[in-house]
Write a structure and sequence with these properties.
The structure is a homodimer.
Chain A lengths: L1 H21 L32 H4 L3 H6 L11 E3 L3 E2 L8 H9 L2 H54 L2 H26 L8 H9 L1 E2 L6 H16 L8 H16 L1 E2 L4 E2 L9 H20 L2 H11 L6 H25 L29 H32 L3 H25 L3 E3 L18 E3 H6 L3 H10 L7 H18 L9 H22 L9 H17 L3 H11 L5 H18 L3 H8 L18 H4 L7 E2 L1 E3 H9 L7 E6 L9 E7 H9 L4 H6 L8 H7 L13 H4 L2 E3 L10 E3 L4 H11 L3 E5 L5 E6 H5 L1 E4 L2 E4 L1 E3 L2
Parallel strand pairs in A: 1-18, 8-10, 13-14
Antiparallel strand pairs in A: 2-3, 4-5, 6-7, 9-12, 10-11, 14-15, 16-17
Helix pairs in contact in A: 5-6, 5-8, 5-9, 5-10, 5-12, 6-8, 6-14, 7-22, 8-9, 9-10, 10-11, 10-12, 11-12, 11-20, 13-17, 13-19, 13-21, 13-22, 14-17, 16-18, 17-18, 18-19, 19-21, 20-21
Chain lengths: 798, 798
């Protein structure tokens, strides 16, 4: 029987790799990147099918990797980078921690809980304010620009010489975009794009360097204003999520490392567990401010981040979201001269879809599903093109000045294309009283009419989306819409990934709304009884959902965001079906846009479940072995050597204890982190010193919190030769009860434990509690279901 | 230092209890109920402060506990019943399971996933149909009743003799309620009430007997129709959640044990993990159908049930919810003669609150919060009264016939009170064209007018709620509203807990809407510029939220449900603040209504986190020890004896293996469940038999699935004296990689592991992997924060 032979071959493999594992854990055992292995669908390894990747090509110079150029992105998604650290969502329950918790009274816990609420309220408030600032700045600056250009065009339409207008428009756009691009490319490259992939990674538990710093926030906010005002095919919504996350990371720590200010508050929250919770709240507040969708925000955070569902946390996240959308709404109501009118939450609001007019019918659902499939196809095309473009950029456009020039080029081309489209369009519409065009371009239209192509090109994309959803049938003619769809599709695709901070939500919605509306118009014209399809806005909404779903492949949170942005439960089912179809169709060809960019950065991203066919693998195969262990009372020199070993660069070390009997094997008794050892070394917590200086103050949890999160590198800590001979007692500082699994635990089981508890290190122990291996994030993220079945990614130091 | 002395006293305690723990695990060690201990807020045990509970008083006769009378509820919430089993949310990864998973191809997993979606679709569809059936039945029957009574009243108003109308009304109500009460009291007592407490427990992981059976569903549906038609102060919404859950449990198993039909489909889903997931979907579909709130339904399920957040599961739950509300909406649109109009999702719809008219202002928020506090107070009063009533009922009204009589009495009193209120009311309103009164009672009003008290009393509660929310200012006079609030408050309180199936959502909303509207009217009359408070409907909404929040204390899901039912994001923040205030104020006095009823049943319910001040406790104190262990190859006789031991009645047994050396201690090597052992015994999987009957078919996972979930008791399995001497090899069937924790793990850490993975048994092992204890649900649920700090509940066999 095939089944038995498989089992035999497996156990023989296990024996091979188990040779070292059975021995006593070694000190300083360095871990080599493993050869690439690949598993076929039924689980047998097939070595060598994957072409070996030239590692040298991927290596970037030290200086470049420090500056964080996109060059450090290895352009091969079959690699997994080892440079990303994980967040520690599991509390480090060492003696210090337990003592602190035990000292705390019930009232103390209540106060902590209240301060968590206060922090969430602050996060919501500040995120709302930032959204408000971005909105007003964009509206004012864009208004100024459009007025100047419109005046110019109006002047030159009669006398001729519109090419001057074109040049004016293009130069204005390029100049504004240049400012944004310079900020991003030269000062903070991580602020490029929407930031959603980075926040996804952070919420997943990967520490992306500099992603939640104040500087990033400032660059992001200024950058997004420049890109939107500069007329690029981008939206201001995506970056809100990143902004909210930065606000959360800053506020919750009660200090700013960049500004060197410590407010001495919220010190309890200075650890990964609490910080990650607050960042979820910040991301949710960002979504909520962007789309006026507090519930959608909560679901976004949960979909991307949560592993363990915690009711109080969810409730706080919801509170932050509510405050954020409320703040935005409240301040914008003053800006719009309707003080106290709280009916317009969110930066973009799709406007109310009246359900009185019949909403939709059962027989329209197949049509919606077909639109979903089409959206999936178009989305896949978008992603594939953007993937190639990104690889091209990684190879050839990695210098900041080149990036700025590319951004300026895109801005100029966008202006030129828009101008050409408007120029050659003959689609004139009467300028009625209901058409609240902000900048109606008359151009060559008769008096009292305006150019309808200009409505979608000569406006911020948010206004164009609303216009496509809500203007009555007949406002746009089919030719306008098809031309617009095609040009905007390529412009948006080119724009995403530029060194400017901007989002892809709105462009995707706009493309979808355009072809959706086109579909609605065509449907009405080919059916005999056209009146029942009378509302092309409905199809615009479905098209927008389909296109966005096809590009980003979010499902649950996106459905709720769309539902909340339309303020309508009725369209819930069709939107959901459309998003599902778009995801299924799109996934057949290529992954979602965010996932592509995450993979291109080789981030060890953990998905929700282990790959379905991975029951073949056990902890024995998955774990890293041999493990660098430390003794409970260890020589300082050994610790310094272990930490300085750049070839391994481990972050967690199991602590073992020699049995009373000398030939008894040493048993696991705890786990200690690099960051803790660094603090211990810095404070010189050596046994000999403790004896000599009895008055010395005991190291407290506060010392660890003060060093968090930027622990100094080992190189910066000076340990003299004498001190190297001292001993360190780790008992008090190690986590004495790390989670362990036996060698035979299946990968899905290991995965579930790891994911549900947000672990960073999981010790694999044998049946007498000896350490035989260590499972970390990269060990689990390595396995994924590729087109050839279960595949194993390579590990790379970059 | 106090801290050190505490530590010393703790370790000495630990040594005491650790004496047996250090020894080799005993066979058949019976676990005695522990003496009640109580911890003060800073963690020191204070023995004897809690008065010892008379256990004998709580014991019920075997026959009674089998029939499931409410008598089996011990009326002391300081007890924790041992009779409730836990669900096993963790997969039992034994060899059989792993072999099956490994045999399955990638396509197999895809098919499974698709069938999960099909099942969820079916759940949604059937739940929607049931909701539709209930709605139509209630509307038709109640309409018939109201027409008869109205005709009678109209006749007798002129000629005098309205007492005949009163008698007619009271008799009609009593008769209808009697039918429902007989069904519930005599056929399926578990169908009483809304079923939400039971479903909360099930989703929490407690197996409540008979709660998801077909018979329960039938009784529930018929019962709820009778109670609503019978004019009780109840709603038809709560029971939908229970109905959805039953549908899910039935459909997902592909068979009905009650009907003895096995469709041979979905056999893979016949285990606790999958079933619990589907039941979450069913509960969500129920909420969704009841309130037209698909997102609220998902959040309800997650709030109550989920511990580990699984994206695909959440997405499926959402799908079931969507289908459910869509199905209901679709079929009801035909019933209401507006085919295809999908704008009325849900059994109750609060109607659109127009936000154009300014919605609310910032300065109204303190008013809303005050209303929330008032709602919390009223809710606490409601709960306290209902608590005393429930204890009274447990003591004196436990016979079915008494229960039926009480229900009839309540129905008659409700009719009498309503009649009296209407009779003495002088609040006449003009019968305008916009007032779409279904059954306007003229009574003593002038022609063309109607009695406005009758609008709220002479209608199903759902219609009354809508009327309070939306009729224009001036429809109700303050006296009417205050009288109504008071009478309805006591009626609803008396009604909840009767032996009829009915929900408390709508009555609570109605009470709140009444006093909220009253508050709005008073506000408008005392302020100089009354016009800005012109809309009393807004205050009715806030009052309804406050009252409901004060009674049930749900937060997150309730906010979303209310937001979806009003179709408005704008009111999200006030509703949230109101619900939070109501919860905080209410929790100060007494727990939520559902929690009270759960506690009165002594269910070992696990909350979200361990009590805040429980870091003092470790696995050593929490675990049950000594543990009954089995050897990997164990004598059949021993197994039968262990299973038959009624004094312990354990459900999980660690499996140990003797080391090669005889004085080496036996090590943990697996965990096996009672249900598995029962199946093994039933199929006589004995080592000797396997040798003699080589052709015998191997026991498969299917055999375990076929026996699920009603495993026979050990008494029904006959094992001969010869067979008792045989051996059983458990290797293949035990879970070889159970989760373990060391002795020193703190309670919060144990709790988190247990909760996040939905465990049933957690083995406590020492540093050489010997079994020293076992942590189960009851060990964790025992500790709770009472008014005197950390308290420990007593365990009782009942």
């Amino acid at each position: 029987m095939a089944n038995i032979t498989k089992k035999v071959s497996w156990s023989s493999r296990a024996d091979e790799s188990g040779v070292t594992a059975e021995g006593t854990p070694l000190l300083n055992g360095s871990e080599q990147p493993r050869p690439s292995r690949q598993l076929s669908r039924d689980g047998i390894f097939q070595v060598g099918r994957l072409s070996t990747v030239d590692l040298e090509e991927e290596m970037t110079s030290e200086e470049e990797s420090l500056r964080g150029r996109p060059k450090e992105i290895p352009h091969n998604e079959k690699l997994l980078s080892l440079k990303f650290e994980s967040l520690d969502y599991d509390n480090i329950e060492n003696q210090l921690f337990l003592e602190e918790e035990r000292r705390m009274s019930y009232m103390g816990f209540r106060c902590l809980e209240i301060s968590r609420w206060v922090v969430c309220g602050l996060i919501g408030f500040l995120t709302g304010l930032i959204a408000c600032f971005i909105d007003i700045a964009v509206e004012e600056l864009a208004g100024m620009k459009y007025r100047v250009v419109k005046e110019n065009i109006d002047n030159f339409t009669e006398v001729g010489g519109l090419s001057i207008s074109l040049i004016l428009w293009a130069v204005l756009n390029s100049a504004i975009v240049m400012m944004g691009a310079i900020l991003v490319a030269f000062f903070e490259p991580i602020a490029a794009g929407s930031g959603i992939p980075q926040i996804k990674c952070y919420l997943n538990g990967v520490k992306i360097p500099r992603v939640v710093r104040l500087k990033t926030l400032v660059v992001k906010v200024c950058g997004v204003i420049c890109s939107v005002v500069g007329g690029l095919a981008v939206g201001k919504e995506g970056p809100m999520i990143h902004s909210g996350a930065v606000v959360a990371a800053g506020v919750s720590q009660g200090r700013s490392t960049s500004l060197k200010r410590d407010f001495k508050i919220f010190e309890y929250f200075r650890r990964d567990t609490e910080k990650r919770d607050f960042v979820s709240a910040g991301a949710a507040a960002g979504v909520s401010a962007a789309f006026g969708a507090p519930v959608g925000g909560v679901l976004f955070s949960l979909e991307e981040g949560a592993s363990f569902w915690n009711q109080m946390l969810t409730w706080r996240i919801f509170f932050a979201s509510m405050i954020s959308t409320f703040t935005l709404n409240f301040f914008l109501s003053f800006y719009h001269n309707k003080p106290g009118d709280l009916s317009n939450p969110g930066l973009i609001n799709f406007g109310r879809f009246e359900s009185d007019s019949g909403a939709y019918n059962l027989y329209e659902i197949p049509l919606f599903i077909a639109m979903g499939a089409f959206g999936g196809l178009l989305g896949a095309l978008f992603n594939k093109l953007n993937y190639w473009l990104t690889i091209f950029r990684i190879r050839y456009v990695h210098r900041p000045c080149l990036q700025v020039m590319e951004a300026m080029l895109v801005a100029a081309v966008t202006a030129a294309v828009s101008f050409t489209m408007i120029y050659f369009s003959n689609d004139c519409q009467p300028l009625g009283s209901e058409n609240k065009e902000k900048y109606p371009l008359q151009l060559f239209c008769a008096d009292g009419e305006y150019n309808s192509m200009a409505t979608i090109f000569f406006n911020t994309p948010e206004i164009s989306v609303r216009s496509l959803f809500h203007t009555q049938a007949g406002t746009y003619d089919p030719l306008t819409l098809s031309l617009f769809t095609i040009t905007y599709f390529f412009l948006a695709c080119w724009t995403y990934g530029l060194a400017v901070s901007a989002g892809v939500f709105i462009p995707a919605l706009l493309i979808g709304a355009a072809w959706g509306r086109l579909f609605g118009i065509l449907l009405a014209s080919i059916t005999p009884n056209g009146s029942i399809w009378a509302d092309p806005g409905k199809y615009a909404l479905i098209g927008a959902a389909a296109q966005l779903g096809g590009v980003v492949r979010m499902t649950l949170s996106l459905t709720v965001i769309m539902m909340e942005a339309t303020g309508n439960v009725t369209y819930g089912l069709p939107i959901m079906l459309v998003l599902m179809t778009a995801k299924i169709v799109g996934d057949y060809f290529v992954e979602g846009l965010y996932d592509i960019h995450i993979k291109l950065q080789s981030v060890p991203f953990l998905h929700w479940d282990a790959p379905a066919t991975s029951h073949w693998l056990t902890a024995r195969e998955v774990m890293s072995a041999p493990v660098t262990c430390l003794n409970r009372i260890e020589k300082v020199g050994t610790i310094v050597d272990v930490l300085s070993n750049t070839s391994t660069n481990h972050n967690g070390f199991p602590v073992v204890m020699q049995g009373a009997d000398s030939d008894e094997p040493s048993k696991l008794c705890g786990l200690i982190l690099r960051s803790q050892l660094i603090v211990l070394l810095k404070h010189k917590v050596f046994v000999e010193l403790a004896r000599s200086r009895l008055t010395q103050r005991k190291l407290q949890l506060k010392d660890f919190r003060d060093a968090y999160p930027r622990f100094p590198p080992i190189q910066s800590i000076h340990v003299s030769q004498d001190e190297r001979e001292c001993m360190m007692d780790l008992t008090e500082f190690m986590n004495a009860t790390p989670y362990t699994v036996p060698l035979e635990t299946s990968l899905p089981r290991v995965f579930k434990l790891f994911r549900a508890l947000g672990l960073r290190h999981l010790v694999v122990a044998d049946d007498v509690n000896r350490v035989v291996g260590l499972v970390t994030r990269k060990d689990l993220a390595r396995y994924h279901l590729g087109s050839h079945g279960l595949e194993e990614l390579q590990l790379a130091q970059t």
